[in-house]
Amino acid sequence: MLYTLAASAALVGLARAQGAGTETAETHPKMNWQECSGTGGNSCQNQNGEIVLDANWRWVHPVGTYDNCYEGNTWNATACPDNAACAQNCELEGVDYQATYGIQAGGNELTLKFVTEHEYGTNVGSRVYLMESESQYKLFNLNNNEFTFDVDVSELVCGLNGALYFVSMPQGGHGEAGAKYGTGYCDAQCPRDLKFIDGLGNVEGWEPSDSDGNAGVGQRGSCCAEMDIWEANSISTAVTPHSCDSEAFTECSGESCGGTYSGERYAGTCDPNGCDFNPYRVGVPDFYGPGKTVDTNQKMTVVTQFIADGGSLSEIRRFYVQNGQVIAQPDAAIEGLSGNVITQEFCDAQEGVFQEEEYPFNDHGGMASMSRAHDAGMVLVMSLWGDHYAHMEWLDSNYPPDGDASQPGVARGDCPNGISDPNDLISQYPNAQVKFSNIKFGPLGSTFAEPASARVKREKRTAERAAARARK
Ligand SMILES: *[C@@H]1O[C@H](CO)[C@@H](O)[C@H](O)[C@H]1NC(C)=O
């Protein structure tokens, strides 16, 4: 009966592009956050938020049936002979967040579990977005604002990444299913592992992954700007802007996408590397980790300020709060790099000091691009993942793995090389999890007790930049 309905819909030429199924109602877990004003983190208003699981994790099935359009890491050739037919024939399903995906939200907290065994198989990792309504993502403009959250990374071993970041996704997602079903993802890697992009399938030329039983790479990729506030585990952390020639969602094709999923990493229109500030990597190895200055055995508050003097992003500033103590990002401590903030000058210096084969952040617009992305509004992403491509060694170990660790920029964390194949992590650390909570957003100084000395320093730098602009 259901099949007949679907077939007759196709016969009368009813367009259906990446629609939603009806087997399971899609009910978004609630996650509240706070919008702040004034100073000191005391004037904050509760916002009723909800989160949605990305479309790529969902069951995709032929319209109205219990069959599969995609299983393991291959497409069903009958339902998906090409990109257009696949989007017509298949639909995305609602999910049971906790039982199937190990995602638990409530109050102001969100917990993402690494491995979840469920009725139909095993789920690995997840990626969720914050919504402002059932069918629209919440857009944030970070310029001249401050984003603060608490995080517990104590169970994130080497090779895992519990990430909180922003991307320039379309607010309503893509296709008929739209943002309600977590569609529309893009980032600065121009990911080609997405099953649907812009309401069409990614089945043509799809190559199943050798190492990931759930993933593959298609010909179509999904690019946009990315502001990584937090990529971290218990060993290392990085804050990293990624620029793009065009900040908004842009489709790319094949190897010209560049990024992680393409043979030519630097062939695309976005910056896959970023201008990162990882304390370990810039010469302060004793700052972040178990028992260190910022102790990853305990929950911490992470504050990120986006100073945009004269309207354009000039500085990304980081503080931690732990046990009531405010701890500033440490100053870089390797020859040629200084200060504890990301500015265009810091990125220019990093390009010279790290001497990598390419420095794509500056090639694709640098801080000015990130600033435009902020102004256009970005979507908040929270995820937990293992890295089948580079085993997260770019975050927490020596990278490149055969690099000389005594050279600037190679050592990024205490993790030994060669221990973080996600397939090993899945069997050894299935219960790993990350917990994000207590999100606060508002003007500079509104979300936490900014020390008077820090405020004075920030305002002095703003005044200096205003004077420099006036001289030009
Ligand atoms: C593949 O799709 C066809 C057409 O919708 C369906 O009849 C078949 O059962 C699907 N195969 C699997 C393995 O789900």
TrEMBL record:
Biased segments, Basic and acidic residues type: 461-472
Highest taxon, organism lineage: Eukaryota
Catalytic activity: Hydrolysis of (1->4)-beta-D-glucosidic linkages in cellulose and cellotetraose, releasing cellobiose from the non-reducing ends of the chains
CDD domains: GH7_CBH_EG
Enzyme class: hydrolase
Record flagged with keyword Membrane: no
GO biological process terms held by the UniProt record: cellulose catabolic process
Pfam family name, one: Glyco_hydro_7
Keywords annotated in UniProt: Carbohydrate metabolism, Cellulose degradation, Glycosidase, Hydrolase, Polysaccharide degradation, Signal
InterPro entries in alphabetical order: ConA-like_dom_sf, Glyco_hydro_7, Glyco_hydro_7_sf
Gene Ontology molecular function terms on file: cellulose 1,4-beta-cellobiosidase activity
Keyword Membrane: no
Signal peptide positions (record): 1-17
Region (Disordered), start-end ranges: 400-422, 452-472
Transmembrane segments annotated in the record for this chain: none
Protein EC: 3.2.1.-
Family in the record: Belongs to the glycosyl hydrolase 7 (cellulase C) family.
Name by which UniProt lists this protein: Glucanase
Species, as recorded: Polytolypa hystricis (strain UAMH7299)
Lineage: Eukaryota, Fungi, Dikarya, Ascomycota, Pezizomycotina
